[in-house]
Amino acid sequence: MRMVVKYAKQDRVKYISHLDLMRTLHRALRRAEIPVAFSQGYNPQPRVAFAPPLPVGMTSQGEYMDVMLASDMGPEDFCLRMNSVLPQGIAMLKAVVIDESLPSLMSMVERALYSISLKDPGQGFEDALKDFLAQTDITIIKSGKRGERLVNIRPMIYHLEIVGREEGRVIMEAMLSAGSKESLNPEQMIRSLLEFVGIEGDPCCFADIHRLDMFLYRGNAWVTPLELGRG
Question: Is 155 helix (H, G, I), strand (E, B) or coil?
Fold first, then answer.
């Protein structure tokens, strides 16, 4: 049995790394006595995989793990048992059983939706945002295993709009690339946006970023991983 599980990473744990988060979840699977299947071979490993990781410093209600089970169990029971042993700040939200033949979540997920709470840059920001998005080339420097390279992130921004204001902050929603093929860290986009409107500084000082969900393209539509569930 293969199960996809949606979970939240809340404010209390937003500064732990993805590696530490994986260790915590693996430990919780053991403590909750979840019947996780193991790989074959000399050094068997639990068959647990994850969707594209969340950058450190962000919160989320749309994280996903992919678990292969050695025996059947109900999705509700899975979440209940996991939540009974998980530390505060990590919570299983929903689980569904999916077809075992489907590709990995990492290879299927292509987009992520974020809510961004930004210190209000002031009058004229709406027009500046329109001008920012009207550009065909928004170039940043990305660092990787092969060193630094120039990347045009404009094609990775599918949607960005202001959805409200509250207590001196602008609330925006952004749909960005997120996957194994290409991925855009929201902080990189925010840094470019702030530079465009003439504000310098670390995006962490100006914005709170919350991932709402992830999406993959299947059956001529963009769906969440939970929508892969049988029935």
Answer: helix
* β-pair type (139-144, 147-152): antiparallel
Pairwise CA distance, residues 186 & 166, whole Å: 21
| pLDDT value at 90 more than 60 | yes
Tokens, residue 185:
């860290």
Closest C-alpha to 67, from 33, 34, 31: 34
State both tokens at 27.
Answer: 């430990």
- Find the farthest-apart pair of alpha carbons in the chain and give their distance in angstroms, rounded: 63
Q: Is 66 helix (H, G, I), strand (E, B) or coil?
A: strand
Each residue's pLDDT tens digit, 153-194? 999 999 999 999 988 899 999 999 998 888 999 999 999 999
CB atoms within 10 A of CB 135: 13
Domains in the chain, CATH or no CATH each:
2-102 (3.30.70.580), 110-218 (3.30.2350.10)
Helix, strand, coil tally for the chain in percent (to 5): 25, 40, 35
- What single DSSP character describes residue 145? T
Both tokens of 226, joined, read 């939970």
Judge residue 137's burial from the number of C-beta atoms within 10 Å of its C-beta, 0-12 exposed, 13-18 middle, 19 or more buried: exposed
Are the beta carbons of 36 and 91 closer than 8 angstroms? no
Written as six digits, the tokens of 116 are: 């961004």
